[in-house]
Amino acid sequence: MINKKHLVLLLIPLLFIFAFNFNNPANIKGIYKVSDNKKSDTATFGSGCFWCTEAIFEKLKGVESVVSGYSGGKTDNPTYKEVCSGETGHAEVTQITYDPSIISFTELLEVFWKTHDPTTLNRQGNDVGTQYRSVIFYHNEEQKKLAEEYKKKLEEAKIYANPIVTEITKFEKFYPAENYHQDYYEQNKSQPYCSFVIKPKVEKFKKVFEDKLK
């Protein structure tokens, strides 16, 4: 049995460690998981097939997660088959969670507009339908303002031969796509669509935005 004297002797080292770490926040962080209170933000973009969009945005520094899904439609909890029919009104989108202290919304807009064709209505390459429309679903007035200003500058600079048809619409709801759509490119690189459509886009993106890659 441990007597009081032995108990005190056992507690002294623990009290010393506690006192040392209490006065040294860095040491506390090393022992315990301390929150950095990092504020994240959300962006929601539609720029064609979400397999392509996800493969691009998840490689950017400051992007914490990218989830493929559906937004902008009238049906609750739509399936991929329903969205592909064009009857639900949803667009294939990626919901991007990012750290604005590392990458800004304006920088995300730059990537968005440079990695798809915003002049083809309801179409990206061979992917045709309203689900493939170019669209920005803004989450607040600041995002709306920045998106509209960026679009206006592109139009004034006449970057594209044809008019920009990108929609800038208020975000309402986001429905995550089925599990097999998530991280699709990384999980299915040998698939023909990934090899011949997504890979060239990703390689081009990596060259243009080399300084922003993780």
Question: What labels describe this entry?
Answer:
alpha+beta; Peptide Methionine Sulfoxide Reductase, Chain A; 2 domains; 8 strands
Structure in words:
With 214 residues, the protein is an alpha+beta fold. The longest helix has 19 residues, at 4-22. The chain contains eight helices and eight strands; from the N terminus they run H-H-E-H-E-H-E-H-E-E-E-H-E-E-H-H. It starts with a helix and ends in a 6-residue tail after the last helix. Strand 6, helix 6 and strand 7 form a beta-alpha-beta unit. It has a six-stranded mixed beta sheet with strand order 7-6-1-3-2-8, with helices on one face.
Count of DSSP helices?
8
Question: What is the third-level CATH name, the topology of the largest domain?
Answer: Peptide Methionine Sulfoxide Reductase, Chain A
Biggest sheet: strand arrangement: 7-6-1-3-2-8
Q: Beta fraction of the residues?
A: 15-25%
| Strands, count | 8
Give me a quick take on this structure:
The protein is of the alpha+beta class and 214 residues long. It contains 8 helices and 8 strands; from the N terminus they run ααβαβαβαβββαββαα. It is 41% helix and 19% strand.
